[in-house]
Amino acid sequence: MSAIQVRDVPDDVREALITAARQRGESLQTYLQSVLAREARMARNRAFLDVYEPVRPPKEIDVVELIADARDDQDRKNIA
After folding, report:
1. Model confidence over 5-51: pLDDT tens digits?
2. Residue 21's closest CA among 34, 2, 5, 8?
3. Chain center to CA of 76
4. Against a cut of 0.70, is the pTM above it?
5. Whole-angstrom Cα distance, residue 1 to residue 36?
């Protein structure tokens, strides 16, 4: 494992982090490790989303027609 040192943290930020750690019943070190791990996961997720475009359905879908087609297909299977 590596060590990370952060300098010049404003006092109010440090106090807010200590308070958040205490509320979770954790040491400041444990709390900051979880914050850093969460940020790293989110960075990986953002990188993944930047690479892959979401699959989008066609803009107009006629649900009634889809249901009718599915029923017709089922009827054809039942006849055969």
Report:
1. 999 999 999 999 999 999 999 999 999 999 999 999 998 888 887 77
2. 34
3. 43
4. no
5. 13
